[in-house]
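Anyone up for a design puzzle?
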């Protein structure tokens, strides 16, 4: 797209050509749309995803949200879902069936691991895990029944950046589909559709909604993959609500502006932490010298406000709670991508399947919100000062 995202996002998914049209598509609260004749009803039924037909398969506002996301992602079409996990589930069900095998990075968002172990396993779908740093070496892990290579870059909690083009090249050579959770990079800073993936997934709950007040997911696909993912979302009934789609559209309008602040503040805080003697390492792909920085520089055009850092081992009797609970601006909570800063201890050592987490001290995940970064830095400095080390 030649037009820059900030400009495109102000007009995406809204039609103001009708005189008197509202600036934003309104919330459409509807299960039922009515038709004048059976012929009209049947015409709508023939294209249920393209206009008003039945609330579960789309309303004008969910369709406007999908249109906006598909265009900014550079894909064929997008499909809105009830949450990020609902979008991921639809992709797995679209591409996998009984007896199939899926490859998943060992740095994956934990609920995906649980989805595979608890639910997909009972349908005869086998998941195995790979080192997120594997790149083209993933070829050695492909089995005759491998149907999907799933990626998430950077990884959850530990922020390993994957070599997406190398993995996509291997997958294409073997006729295997690829899908990626691209939530961290957002549709503005990371463009996986241009790298040839079949499906790009966003937990719109995070930066797209941007205010921590709605659950929403979205998948953008190629033309070839659209029917299967669209059908899987229809069959699971995990549709996006109209209120949520409206909030997602509203969030898109300010996404570029909010992200530039998250980017700048995140890097400023990361650099502050990297210079502190209490900090063993900072895991922020956008920070020069940090793990994954070279791949990030090649494949991303910015960073969001989410990263982790490892503290040096704490003194006997001291726990990471002494750090997380001591802060004012950083509240303890799941999710991220809103305007507020958050802190959470991370435990990659509890979930790794094929790699070993080598951290010696506690790992802490931060979301850098829209507060003034100097206040956030003062908050962190105070909390660090209260710690004692081994
Ligand atoms: C939060 C998150 C999800 C899940 O999104 P929900 O809307 O909470 O279901 C998926 N992937 C990543 C990387 C996330 O951080």
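Challenge accepted. My sequence:
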């Amino acid at each position: 797209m030649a037009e820059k995202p900030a400009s495109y996002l102000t007009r995406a998914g809204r039609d103001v050509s009708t005189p008197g049209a509202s600036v934003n598509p309104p919330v459409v609260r509807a299960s039922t749309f009515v038709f004048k004749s059976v012929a009209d009803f049947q015409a709508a039924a023939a294209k249920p995803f393209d206009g008003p037909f039945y609330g579960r398969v789309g309303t004008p506002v969910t369709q406007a949200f999908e249109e906006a996301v598909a265009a900014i992602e550079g894909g064929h079409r997008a499909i809105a879902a009830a949450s990020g996990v609902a979008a991921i589930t639809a992709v797995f069900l679209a591409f996998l069936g009984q007896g199939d095998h899926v490859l998943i990075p060992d740095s994956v968002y934990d609920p995906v691991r649980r989805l595979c172990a608890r639910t997909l396993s009972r349908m005869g779908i086998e998941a195995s895990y790979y080192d997120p740093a594997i790149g083209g070496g993933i070829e050695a892990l492909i089995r005759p029944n491998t149907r999907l290579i799933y990626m998430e870059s950077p990884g959850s909690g530990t922020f390993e950046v994957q070599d997406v083009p190398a993995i996509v090249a291997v997958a294409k050579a073997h006729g295997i589909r690829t899908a990626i959770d691209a939530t961290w990079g957002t549709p503005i800073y990371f463009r996986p559709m241009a790298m040839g993936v079949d499906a790009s997934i966003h937990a719109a709950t995070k930066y797209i909604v941007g205010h921590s007040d709605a659950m929403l997911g979205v998948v953008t696909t190629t033309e070839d993959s659209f029917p299967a993912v669209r059908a899987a979302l229809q069959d699971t009934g995990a549709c996006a609500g109209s209120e949520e789609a409206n909030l997602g559209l509203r969030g898109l309008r300010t996404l570029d502006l909010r992200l530039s602040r998250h980017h700048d503040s995140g890097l400023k805080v990361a650099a502050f932490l990297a210079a502190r003697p209490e900090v063993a390492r900072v895991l922020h792909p956008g920070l020069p010298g940090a793990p994954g920085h070279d791949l990030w520089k090649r494949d991303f055009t910015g960073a969001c406000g989410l990263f982790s850092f490892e503290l040096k081992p704490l003194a006997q009797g001291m726990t990471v709670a002494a750090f997380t609970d001591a802060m004012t601006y950083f509240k303890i909570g799941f999710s991220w991508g809103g305007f507020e800063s958050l802190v959470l201890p991370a435990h990659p050592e509890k979930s790794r399947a094929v790699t070993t987490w080598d951290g010696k001290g506690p790992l802490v995940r931060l979301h850098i919100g829209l507060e003034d970064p100097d206040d956030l830095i003062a908050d962190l400095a105070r909390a660090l000062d209260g710690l004692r080390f081994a």
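A detail worth pointing out: The pocket of pyridoxal-5'-phosphate is lined by residues 83-85, 109, 152, 156, 181, 183, 203, 205-206, 215, 217, 335 (CB under 6 Å).
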